[in-house]
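Schema walk-through. Below, the input block comes first and the output block second. Nothing else is stored per chain. Lengths vary across the set, and this one has 178 residues.
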Amino acid sequence: MLSSPLNLPKWLEENSHLLSPPINNYCVYNKDVTVMIVGGPNARTDYHINETAEWFYQYRGSMLLKVVDKDHDPSFRDIPIREGEMFLLPPHTPHNPIRFADTVGIVLEQPRPSDSKDRLRWYCQSCGEIVHEAAFHCTDLGTQIKEAVNTFREDDEKRKCGNCGELADVVPRGVVQP
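--- output ---
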């Protein structure tokens, strides 16, 4: 069955309260493709790794997509996505979407294969090593990511870098809106 068109400004007026931290997303379609409306601000330090591509469109304001790009030097990069811009993130790319106050974006994801694993990875802000990784088959992005993020925040052992001993941040530091 076909659904009705969604009037985004009206939806935001009536439902912006659904875009709550720490992830701030709401899934509006989840059949042949997953369509999420995502608001800001958020406060995440994890890098999401999806086995399929993700498409970002910035409807209002700007966001910063922090990525780990193994083919780039340095491998940690910031990709600003400004109002009206779109960006296609390749599969398997660790990324941390930083959203600022009063911003809204749309993210499209492909259906996940039944044997796929989403991963959330935290890196040490001092030495760049992987501090912790949580993996799960994603069936409900909003609840599963929130659960993994909150579990990491509450466990100092998971947050401790095995390489340098630094405690990983749970709130981004020094991020400037593009």
